[in-house]
Amino acid sequence: MYVLPDKYRKGFIKMDNNRYSSNRPRRKVSRRTYRNRRLAALAIIAFLVLILIVLIANACADDNEKKPSDSKSGTTITTTTTVTDEAIPTTVTTTVASTVPKNDSDFKLDRQTISIMVGESDMPRVLEYPDGTVEDDERWTSSDKEIATVDDYGHITGVAPGVCYVILKSAADLSQEVWIKVTVRSELSDDETTTTNMPQSNRTEAPAPPVHDTEGLTYINGVLLVNKQYGVPATFEPKLEQICYDKFNELSTAAAKEGLSIYISSGYRSYSDQDRIYNNYIEDEKKKGNSEARAKEIVDSYSARPGYSEHQSGLCIDVNTIDDAFGYTPEAAWLAEHAHEYGFIIRYPLGKEDITGYQYEPWHIRYVGSKIADKIYKSGQCLEEYLNVG
Ligand SMILES: [Zn+2]
After folding, report:
1. Is 361 an annotated catalytic residue?
2. 65, 361, 384, 385: which is the annotated catalytic residue?
3. Which of 28, 138, 169, 358 would be 348's cystine partner, CB 3.0–4.6 Å?
4. 311 CA from centroid of ligand 1 (Å)
5. What is the overall mean pLDDT for the chain?
6. Which pLDDT score is estimated for 3?
7. 149 C-alpha vs ligand 1 centroid, how far in Å?
8. Which of 156, 191, 226 is the endpoint of a domain?
């Protein structure tokens, strides 16, 4: 028989003294008092039932743990997390009968897919935690340690070729979990798998973009640079470059084969387009009560001044929704992983805000050709770093 811990028993005794063991002679109780007593009795019964349920759940969970886990099953992933509360140890077992990533938690990661070679390591960054969860509450597990392992800090290491999931849970709130798809490639057969499994388009190289000799353009190592320091003349009107458009279509077609929809939201913008956009933003910020100077400061962090927008180069595209939420979609994850294969780079990466001068824009891709895109992708640099300009 389960014996209540002292702290609970004390509570009951105290209640007894107050309510029932009074030395006063018993009086006829009113209906109201009677009802209150009945409610108190019910509350006590409910409390006891609750304790019973917790004990039974506990016993069942222990039972599950003792069973050998079915690690051979390809579709069932079982993760067991033990959380120790002050008094009552509780074991919660979650069985997820599918390999579909569960990504509706309040964890925000910089990506939800990772592609590594055997022996290589990578680590997704946690950008936001669910309410009440802190870094120490991170609990990392791998769905298949024979494919990839993960340590307490989220370092994922490839063990053998294959696909598995790394699951991040919150010890503070077990309903909060996010899955990261991990693809581990074999070092030796990498070239083989690239040519056999990848879409047709990857076998053809995305050529370098065209070079214009218009005065006032800045080319560094053959790459047209447009940023806050290096502008383009108002008269420069290349429209969306054909190669950029064609390669984007290849990219979009490859994504569609994986059930993802990546479409152009904003491509080429002329000087006057940008002039209008920039000034509209300024007006919006002023309506919010910001001064002219403050409005400019705010708008400059996310929009280019006319003549300084990369969109005027005809070599970049904003895809899908121009919104931070886009960064958490499977389309954004796919884009980050594959854009370079089509000659594009994520132009304003996370963590490079001080160098690019722009907030993280997972939707803004810039065409540079696959040779450079590949180098930039692998180096983790942004374009300014790659071109060695401040
Ligand atoms: Zn853009």
Report:
1. yes
2. 361
3. 358
4. 6
5. 79
6. 53
7. 37
8. 191
